[in-house]
Amino acid sequence: MNPRLFASLTLTAAFASAALAGDWPFVRGPRGDGSSPEKISKKWPDQGPKVLWKVNSDRGFSSFAVGGGQAFTLEWREVDGAGQEVLVARNADTGKESWAKPLGVVKLDGGGDAGTGDNKGGDGPRSSPTFDGDRVYVTSAKLVLACFSARTGEELWRHDLIKEFAGRNIQWQNAASPLIEGSRVLVAGGGAGQSLLAFNKTDGAVAWKAFDETMTHATPTAATLHGQRQVIFFVKSGLLAVDPDNGKELWRYAFPFRISTAASPVVAGDIVYCSAGYGVGAGAVKVTKNGGQFAATEIYRFQGDKPLANHWSTPVLHEGHLYGMFQFKEYGSGPVKCVEVATGKVKWEQPGFGPGHVVLVDGHVLALGDAGQLVLIKATPDKYQEVARADVLDGKCWTTPVVSGGRVYARSTKEAVCLDLAAQSASAK
Hints:
It is built from three helices and 33 strands. It is mostly beta strands. The strands form eight sheets. A five-stranded mixed β-sheet has the order 1-27-28-29-30, with no helix packed on it. The chain has a four-stranded antiparallel β-sheet with strand order 2-33-32-31, with no helix packed on it. The N and C termini lie far apart (about 50 Å). Residues about 1-20 have low confidence and may be disordered.
């Protein structure tokens, strides 16, 4: 066998094995849809899940990527007399810092970083790292895409999308995370004729570039529809699905833009759901294929912030229903809702969460409210069923909690925490 092919297959097998062991390599999880295949404890102690470690983690809304025994996130730190985004690697077991690499000076809107009473965004990173094999990929607020050794932090390659590809940044700057699809790293943010970009994940060489679109804050979604693997970008013109191998357009759905679009598209079979705040609302399309041609037909559209709007919280899908924070600027009070994805009908809603984030694990929704409350909810359309709750973080929590190896890793604008939710913990008591 060709030695390079053998090495590639070995690395691929190692990564797949690691993912099965419980890695959370991407902001949208190991499946790319906000769900985890793991089992967790549903009986929490009165004082909350055991805290394995808690450390200071300053500013921004970057979540964790966990893999290879490490937890990676982006923080704001003072470096060489200036506030910079910094990629930080921590030992996943202890929280001890392994290495840190500055990405560049960042100054966003100057807002505060307190709890839910302060609704400004604050300074610091918005996007999250992506872990793949032995590497970590990041896209900075200023559209610098970089690849690092996960073990040592050595920078392996980088591209400045603004300088090299006539990039066009947006208000509040980039918040989207890089998407790994096969051998490619896919991002938005370039200029005319190169607004969507795919790079070889090994050496950073350009694989393809295409389109004249303006990016949003939404991370793209990869999925297979009608046997075709595709990546769905949520750009200012709406949804744009492309073939990740060559950038060929597959289908579009025109969807309005106002101020900001930040939640990722959600795929449910042949239905694709999308939503935005600022009075835009939500919509869904049914994607069909006739011969080699795709088409997207709208099946519902709700305008305004009620009943459906996802400010920046991407819902998760379970058995034909969406669960998530459907709200716009309802800080500290916005509801979690259950929505039938085929119709957009709200089955139930429960206030008191604000614009946090949710993930799906073990038939349950794990919700992190914006005041630092972690809540476990049964994923059922029948009614709201709260299973467990604990206050786990101080500060403002607009980040996605992640599940890896029976643990929950979560961040606020002030600190980061690792909690023990291993399923065997419950049975051992």
